[in-house]
Amino acid sequence: MTAEADSHEEKPRAPKPDFLTPTRFDQLDIPPQLQAGLESAGYSRCTPIQAQVLPVSLAGRDVAGQAQTGTGKTAAFLVTVMTRMMTFERKHPDLPAALVVAPTRELALQIHEDAEMLNRETGYRILSVVGGMEYREQAETLKKGVDIVICTPGRIIDYLKQGVFQPKEIRIVVIDEADRLFDLGFTQDMRYLLRKLPHYEKRQSMLFSATLSYRVMELTYEYMNQPEFIAITPDMKTVEGIQQSLFHVGKESKLSLLLGLLAREAWERVLIFVNTKSGVEWLAWKLQGNGLPAEGITGDIHQRKRLRLMEEFRDGRIKILVATDVASRGIHVEDITHVINYDLPQDPENYVHRIGRTARAGKTGVALSLACEDYVLHLEPIEQMLGNAIPVVWPEDDWFVKDQAGPRPARKRPREKRDGRGRPAARGPRRAAPRKIKNGGPAVEAEAAKGDPAEGRTPAAARSNGRPMRKGRREMEATGVFKFGLTIAKTDAPAAAETPPEEAAAEPKDAKPAKKHRPRRRRRKKSAAAATPAPEPQAEAE
């Protein structure tokens, strides 16, 4: 074996000589318990962000760092948190002393996984508080006592308002992916949460972001105590080692070109980005129909299924993962060889976050982008942010592979239709509610029109509020008009509406209309019965 090969084996995760710095973790003021966790995780030398952040953060000073994903910033703040907690004097040991806030559930769970890897010898109680998990179970664990809380803003604020989460013992807070928190609309939530924490002079704060935008800088000035600003390669917008290519293609040919690229490229694990949830579902189904091991992940998928898919993607059981931008910040897999932008991102910064899923830890990767007529307008802002044009590749005709999946079958409609608010829709046509009239009763017209099949007369229930009929009812019925302008039945044969359907069917066609007024003459003989309100009609009669 040559000397060149030997040098390559000494740092398999860092083929570039300048990726890892000469600074070693054992040279820093880190407790032996945590040093053991670092060694078991395979950490020996610091990355650039770790080498610059740790001397400042371990001294207890606030830090605002700019670094791309995959540069080791997670280990930087976790080492700081666990080291600093050993120096805290806690009045309430069961209350959390450290809080780590992440924009997405996937990223929070990934941070929790990394923390548990370093926590093998320290014994801290670590809890992830995110949506989609058991609500009561997380609350009970918080009440029992934890040391470090890793969370998303929504769920932790909910516990805060209920008094389940008590932040008075928080001595160190970390905000990861701060720019993404603002992009997802957590601006007000973060301000509310930071105001509820102890004052910035009584705690240590650390913030990390891919870009230190004006919004991020405003947050640092308002809620941090004179932070040290550390930027790693500020002029380099993308991670080195990524081979970028751009393909101009029509929307109707995107799938064929994608199938051809997957057939030509030597890939091991692929992450494909689509801008919409429906697009993710459609593309994942198409890839499966063409014999490719693909699955889709969106924000609508249940948390347990999302965790299972992420685990299978890390283990290699799923080779191709189709996702939206929501998943781009929570996928930390070092062996992603290809990132494909099936749709160009609408936000230029998302392009950096997407392709940053590959070429992690000093490795190389490939980023392919398909520019169709729907999203080609976003190409210019992306290239302006990069400072250079993405190399264009013009595919040959044989690069396009015919789709073998065919048309996607239509989804089966649910048995129970639902309205726009998620409620079951009414069965059959919905009748308009009768207009309520003071002293008139809401169902006068309906009751009068139905009649009483038992006696062949208008029921006594057709009265105002269950009271006996007012004087002059007979005259109003004869004209078909009530006192308040309500019409019973004003037709060419006014008595037809007063006869029940059962009796109308039994009557001869030449029956005299005068017979239909007999119920009113018999009613005068049964005045006592008329004074008693008749029961409301059954639902079947309506």
Q: Structural class from helices and strands?
A: alpha/beta
Uncertain segments of ≥5 residues (pLDDT<50)?
1-18, 434-466, 481-511, 525-542
Shape: globular
What is the class of the largest domain in the CATH system?
Alpha Beta
CATH homologous superfamily title of the largest domain = P-loop containing nucleotide triphosphate hydrolases
Roughly how much helix do the residues carry, as a percent range? 25-40%
Number of DSSP strand runs? 13
- The CATH level-2 architecture of the largest domain is identified as 3-Layer(aba) Sandwich
Q: Main sheet, how many strands, which sense, barrel?
A: 7 strands, parallel
Mean pLDDT equals: 78
CATH topology value of the largest domain: Rossmann fold
Strand content: 5-15%
- What is the CA-based Rg, rounded? 36 Å
Number of domains: 3
- Cα-to-Cα separation, first versus last residue: 92 Å
How many H/I helical runs? Answer: 20
Order the strands across the largest sheet as they lie in space.
3-4-2-5-6-1-7
Task: Characterize the structure shown.
- 34% of the residues are buried.
- The protein has a seven-stranded parallel beta sheet with strand order 3-4-2-5-6-1-7, with helices on both faces.
- Strand 3, helix 6 and strand 4 (148-151) form a beta-alpha-beta unit.
- Residues 1-18, 434-466, 481-511 and 525-542 have low confidence and may be disordered.
- It has 542 residues and is an alpha/beta fold.
- The chain contains 20 helices and 13 strands.
- It starts with a helix and ends in an 11-residue tail after the last helix.
- Helix 3 (48-57) runs parallel beside helix 4 (73-85) and helix 4 (73-85) crosses helix 5.
- It has helices at residues 3-10, 32-41, 48-57, 73-85, 105-118, 135-144, 153-162, 178-183, 187-196, 214-223, 254-264, 277-289, 303-315, 348-355, 379-386, 444-450, 473-479, 501-506, 518-523, 527-531; strands at 63-66, 98-101, 126-129, 148-151, 172-175, 204-209, 228-231, 242-248, 270-273, 294-297, 320-323, 338-341, 365-371.
